[in-house]
Amino acid sequence: MRHTLLASAALLAAFLVGCQQQPPANDQLDAVLWTQTSIEHELIYRQVFASATRQLDVALATPDWDALPLPPRRLAGLPPAVIVDIDETLLDNIPLNARDIRNDQAYGYDRWNLWVEQARAQALPGAVAFVQAARQRGIKVYYLTNREHSQVRATVDNLRLRGFPVDSPEQVLAAGTPTGHCEQAGYGKDCRRQWVASQARVLLLAGDSLGDFVQAAHNSLDAQRRAVEPYLGWLGQRWFLLPNPTYGNWYSAPYGDQDDLPMARKRQLKQQALQLQP
């Protein structure tokens, strides 16, 4: 009997120790794991950028080719350009998310700002070759990013360190930029795209979010579908969309973009957003 009690106590102790060593739950774990460790993520990036590179010659040879969702405009005489997003399109910031998961921390803007200033992000697969191919064809690259305007210098440094051509900091159009009088436009990219349209014939857009292509009226799936509907034929031809399962408008839409809600409430609302019927 004594041996049985001792064995039971040992099992209970081992169980309790095991429970204590279980890592805390984190809603981003699987998304970050897939992004960092799957060959599929790497190959999708290479595939998208290879397809985009092939389209450059097609677009250059087509005088009325325009990748911007604007009314028809006069393109004759405008130099060619492409517009590309930076974060999770060209530069990989997911190690910051991975660190938060390991440390059981919520996302923090202080750590993000430090990360940007350190210029530590690496290039994503295929991205440098695509941007360099555009430049070799005489196509100007505009980098549209929702990093803050005060972070342009650090962003230019990071891009150049990874081999992306940046001739001038003016090519990096960050949120709040005075270029094109876009200071008051917030994080929407329409104003900055329209300014580029005044300077160039835009051959191609690349990004990881719908907002890198067109602005929806609201952060809802229905509004996003309505916004993109007229341009579905441009996917894979003028617009090149990359996957980002770690963050974006979709992540905060279920809880109405209310970032100050408790995590338990956010998770409850995300659960409720799941669709159980086709």
UniProtKB/TrEMBL annotation:
| Gene Ontology CC terms | cell outer membrane
Listed name of the protein: Acid phosphatase
Alphabetized, the UniProt keywords read: Signal
Q: Name one Pfam family in it.
A: Acid_phosphat_B
Q: Which domain of life is it from?
A: Bacteria
Q: Identify the species of origin.
A: Pseudomonas chlororaphis
